[in-house]
Records
---
Amino acid sequence: MGYPHAPHRREALVLSKHFGEKDAVTLAGWKKRGGYAALEKALGMPPADIVNVVKDSGLRGRGGAGFPTGLKWSFMKIGDGKPHYLCCNADESEPGTFKDREIMRWTPHALIEGCAIGSYAIGAETCYIYIRGEFTEPIARVEAALKECYDAGILGKNAMGTGKTVNVWVHRGAGAYICGEETALMNSLEGKRGNPRIKPPFPAVSGVFAQPTTINNVETLAAVPAILNNGAAWYKQWMRADNPKSTGTKLYSVCGNIQKPGNYEVPMGFPFKEFLYDLCGGPPPGRKFKAIIPGGISVPIQTVDEAEASLMDYEGFVAEGTMLGSGGVICIDDSQNLVKQIARAARFFAHESCAQCTQCREGTAWTTKILERIVAGEGTPEDLDTLLSIADNMTGKTICVLSDSCATPVVSGLKKFRADFEALIKSKRTILVPAVA
C-alpha cells in the first residue's frame, strides 16, 4: 500500500491519520497537527495522574502480549532512589508484521512524544528506542526528529523549559528476531549476546543495567499522546459494548493471497469477515481463502470459518482459537499447500533460535528437518505424530516463547489441515519451499 491513500470509510484513524503527509515527519509539521501539546500537558501533571489516565483508557500492549500499559507503568516505584529506564521495542520482525516501521517512517514525532510522556510517567530520565538495524529509513526519520527535538529544547535537561530531564536515544539492533523479546533486547542493549533472561526478576525490578525498566512497543507508545490530549473516555469509544477489556484502535498489517495488502487501522472488536472481504478486497479473483493467520506467524492458524466468525480484539480472536498477536494478518488461499507454509515458518524459527534452551535449539531444528523431509516427498505417516511429540516438548518449557512460536503453527496446522500433510506424504510429491529471507 502506498501513501497517501484514501482510507476505507470503516477505518478509524488515530495512529495512521497522518501517514503519507510528508511534512508530518518534521517538527514544524507535527506541531501544526497539535504535536507536543500532550507532552507539555503531561509535564505539568503528577506522574501518577498520567499513569491513571492511561490505565483508565484501557490501552494494552500492541507488541503481542496485550498487557495493560497503565498497569505496567504503575509497577515502577517513583522515588525509590534508583535510575529508571524506558525501552521502546522497535525491533519489529514478526513475519507478516510491518506496521511499527510505518509509524516511525511517517510520524516519528508521535513515537518520540509517547516515549517522552512514558518516561516522565515512570520516573525515567532516559528512554532507548531499540530499532532493528535493517530499518534504515525509519532510523533516519527518528534520528532526524530527535535532533529537531533537542535543538528546540523539547528534550534534554530542561525539557520544554520545565526543569525536568527527558532524554530519548536511538539504539540500533543487529537484526536478530530474538532481540524483540524484552529480556533479550535488554541484554543486547547492554552490549551482550541477545539471549533471553529467566524471569523473575521482571524488568520493573531489575531491567536494563539491573535497574527498574519498562518496555513498550512502538504502536503502544505512539497512541499515548492522543490519549493524553483527548482523555480516556475518548479512547474507549472504540470497543465492543460487551467487551470493555479491549479498547481503542489497532493497526493491522495484511499480506499474502489478498487483493489489497497494506496497513489498516480499525476499532477493537471489528468484524474480521468484513475486514478481510470489504476493506482488504478478499482473495485473488477465482480463488477462495483456505486459512488465515491473524497475528503474525507465531499464532495459531485459523480455518476460514473460524476467521469469518472472529471479532478483532484480544478476546475475540481467542474465542476462535487463535490470538491477536502483533496484528500481522497472513492470508492463504486454496492454491497453497499448508505444509509448505508451515515448513517455511519452522525454518525461520530454527534460523532465529538463540540456541540457549535445548528444547528450542533441538526442537526447531528437528521440526524443520522432518517438515523438509515431507515436502521433499520422503515423509512417512509416523512423522506426523513425531512432530506433535516434539511440539509438546517445545511448548512452555523454555526461557522465552520462540520455541512455542515454532510449535504453534505445526500443532494448529496438523489439527486443522492434517489432510494436506497426509496427501503430500501419500503422493510422495516434492514441493519447493522458498528460502527464509
Note: The chain has a mean pLDDT of 95.
---
Amino acid sequence: MSTTVVPGTGHEPGHAHGHADPDMPVTYGLLAEFETGDAMAHATAKATAAGYTHLDAYSPYPVGEAADALNFPKSEMGPVMFIGGLTGACAGFIMQYWANTWGYSLNIGGRPYFSWPSFVPITFEMMVLTTALSGLFGFMAICGLPRYNHPLFNSKTFDRASCDRFFVCIEATDPKFDRAATRAFLNDLHPLSVEEVME
C-alpha cells in the first residue's frame, strides 16, 4: 500500500503514533524490498549504524549477518523449557511420594512405601510433558501470539518474504523515524522499492 498520509492537527511528522484523530490511518513503518539476502543484511547494518533501533528484517531463510546487525538477543526458550520440565518432574515425583506414603499407601510385596526407583517412569513422563507444554506456551507468549493480523500483511509485496524477497522495515515508533528522511535513507540503499505500510 503506497498511501500518503496527511498529518492532522497536532501530528508530529516524526511520530506517526499517538495522533489525535483515531479515524486517520496510522503509519506502521517504511518497508524496503531487496532482491538478495546480502543486500538486506547490508541495509540492516547501515540502518542500525545510522541509529535506528525499531526495525526488523524479513527473509525466506535465516540470514546470519542481518541477525548480527539486529543484535538478536539470546533465545529465552531454553530457560523457559528447563524450568517447565524441572517443575513437572518435581511435581510428578512429589505426587507419587504423597500417594504411596500418605494418601494411598499399599504394601506391595513387602517393598518400602518410599520406593523411589518405581517413581522414575512417571517422573520422566511428567518432565517430557511439561517441557513440551512450556515450550509451546512460552513460545506463544514470547512471540505475542495469538495475533490475528500484522500490519506488514497489508503490503502486497510482503507475501514474497516467504519465497524470494528480502525486506527491512523501519517502524514509525522509532525515535529517529521521519517519513521523508527515512524514505530518503532507505532509497540510498538501492532497494527494489520502498513502501509506506499502514496499520
Note: The radius of gyration is 26 Å.
---
Amino acid sequence: METLLIMLEAFLSQQTLVFYEYLGLTTVQNPFLIIDSTSVLELIGIEFPFELNYITSIIYVSLYVSLTAVFLSTIFSIPVAMLIGFTDFPGKQLIVSVINTGMGFPSVVVGLVVLFAVSNQGPLGTFDLMFTKEAMIISQFVLATPVITGIALSSVMGVRDGVRDAAYVMGGTKLDVSLVTIKEARTGIITAVLAGLGRAVSEVGSVLIVGGNIAGYDGTSITRTLTTAIQLEARQGRFETALLLGGILVALVLLINGVLIRLGYNRISGGEDKWHH
C-alpha cells in the first residue's frame, strides 16, 4: 500500500510539471504548487532560480525607501535646525524638548500612526498609499527627521557666536552667515545625516506595519526590505539567507557612510574659508 502511494505521488508530480509546461507557466507563477515543484526541481539538480532576483529587488527597495526618506528629511531638518538655532522665541525650549523626545520615539507607534493616516479613514486615504513604498518613505521620514534635526541643532548651537559676528561685520548677508555656520558645524551635520540614515535603514517595526513585507509570486520584492526579509527568513528557519541579507545590509551601510562622509567634507569644506582670513 505504501509503495502504491509513493508511485501515485511521483506520478502526480510528473503530471504537474507536464501540465505546467503545457500552460507555459513557471512554478512561481502558480503559488499553490510552489513547494512541490521546487522539490522536484531540486531533485533533478536545478537550483531555485529566483533567489538572485529576490535579493536584488530587496536591496533596491531598501535603498530606494531609506535614501529617499533621509534625503527629504535632510532638506527639511537642516533649515529647521538653522531657524531654531539662530532665533530666540517663546517656547523654544519646548520645541527642542519635543525634538529630543522624537529621537527615541517607538517605531511601532509611528507605524500605527502612519498606517491610520494612509488608511481609508485617514487624511491621506484618497491617495491609496497603504502597503506601498511611499507609505514606507513617510514612516521613515517621521523617524529620521527628529534624529537629523536634533543632532544638527546641537551642532549649529555649538558654533561660537564670534564666527557669526565676524561674518556680519565683514558684510555678509544672512545666507552668508548661514553658510559659514553650516561649514563650522559640518561634522555634526554629517553625523546627523548618518544617524538618520542608520535609523531609517535599520528600521523594522514601522515599515513592516505600513509596507506589509510584500513580495510577488516571481520573488520580486514589492515592499520587502532587508530588515523585514531578515526577520522573515529567520522565523522560517532559513538562517543562511538571513545571514547573507544581514551581511549585505552591513556592507551597504558602511559603503553609504563612507560615500556621504567623503562627499560631505568635499562639498562643505571645499574652497577657502574667507571668514577666517
Note: The radius of gyration is 26 Å.
---
Amino acid sequence: MNQANLTKIRTNLHRRQLINSLFALLGMMIIAIALIILLGLTIKMAIQGYPRITPEFFTSFPSRRASSAGILSAWVGTSLVMLVTALAAIPLGVASGIYLEEYAKKNWIADLIEINVTNLAGVPSIIYGLLALGLFVYQLRLGESILAAGLTLALLILPVVIVTTRESLRAIPNNLREAAYALGASKWQTIWDHILPYSFGSILTGIIIGLSRAIGETAPIITIGALTFIAFLPKPPLSGEFPFISFEWLQAPFTVMPIQMFNWVSRPQAAFEINAAAAGTVLICMTLGINAIAIYLRYQLRKGIKW
C-alpha cells in the first residue's frame, strides 16, 4: 500500500469519526431539549396544582364546586381497573410469549403470528376501544363496568408483554438450556427452574412499561362508556359476611384519573384547571412510582445473576 492510499484511508476514517461525533452530539441535544421541555411542563403543572393537593383532595368525590371537588372515585377506579388489567394481561401475555418462543414450531404460521403480534403493539388505542365495545360490552354483555375496562386495557398491553417476554427468553444463552437437558431436565423444568428466573427481570420491565401506558389511556375507556362524573364507590371486594369475598365491584360503573382530568379541563371555570393540574400531578406520581418499583425489582433480580 503506497503513501497516497494510506493518506486517503486516514482521511476517510477521520471524516467518518467526525460524522459519528456530530450525530451523537445532535442526538444528545435533541434528547436534552425534549427532557427540558417535558420537565418544564411537569414542574409548571405541579406548581399550578400544588395548592389543591391536600388530604381532602384524595378523600372527596367530584363536585360542581371546584374548591370541594376531589379524586376519590377516580383513583379508586384507576386502581381497580389496573388490578383487572394486570390479572388478565400478565399470565396470558407471559404464557403466550413462552409458548411462541420455546414450544411453537418455526414455520410460516409462527412467523404470521409474530408479525401480527408485533404490529398490534402499534395499533392506536381507539381501535382497541372499538373492539372492546363490540366484544365485551355488546357481545359478552359486560356493560360499562370495571371488568370491561380492565379487559380492554389488557388487550392494549398484551402485545407489549408478549414481545417483551419473547425477547427476554431469547436473550438467555442456549448453553443454559443444553446444560439443563444434559442433566436430564425436561423442557418445562428447564424453563421454570432456569430460564424464567434469569429472564424475569426483563419480563417484569416490559410488564411495568405496559401498565404505565395503560394507566394514562383515555380513548379506549371513553369508548366503552366510562362515566365522567361519579359520586360513589364500588362495593369492596372483602366483606364481613360469608363468603367474605365479593365480585360485585367488577360490574360497577367507574371513572379513572385521565377522564376526571378531561372533565375538569373541559369546564369553563378557571378554578377547575387547578384541580386538573393537581390530578395530573398525582397521575404522574403514580406512573413514576410504578416505574421506580420496576427499576428496583429489576436491580434486585439481576444482582444475583452471574453467567
Note: The radius of gyration is 25 Å.
